[in-house]
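check this one:
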Amino acid sequence: MTQTTPTYGRYYDDPDSVPASDLRSEARVVLPHEIQASDGIELGNISGGLYAKAVHTGSYQNMKATYDFIYGSWMPNSGKDAHDAPCLELYLNNPEDTPPEDLVTEIYIPLKA
C-alpha cells in the first residue's frame, strides 16, 4: 500500500436504526495486483451495478447530513430505490495530513436496476 492506494469503507447498517454497538463495517483497499491472503486479511470484490454517487466535502463527523440529503431528498425525487447492499465511501485524501474541512469522500449508494 502507498499514500495513493484507494481506501474504502463498506457500511452495512443504518446508524439511525441500529445501535452503535451493533453497526457493521469493513475497511477495504484496492490493490494494483493480486496478493495472497494472510491472517487477518480477506480478499473480496466490490459489486458492480448501478450506484448513486455523492461527494461529501468536510469532516467525517458531518457526513450524516450528506446521507440524509441522499435518502431524504434526492432518492424520493429521483424515482430510484436503494438496493439491499452495503454503501461504500471512497476516501480521496488522508485525514492524517488533511484538515477536516478539506476532506473529500465519494459516497456510493447501490440502487435497484
Notes: The mean pLDDT is 91. Residues 11 and 71 are 15 Å apart (CA to CA). The domain at 7-30+48-110 is CATH 3.20.80.10 (Multidrug-efflux Transporter 1 Regulator Bmrr; Chain A). The radius of gyration is 15 Å.
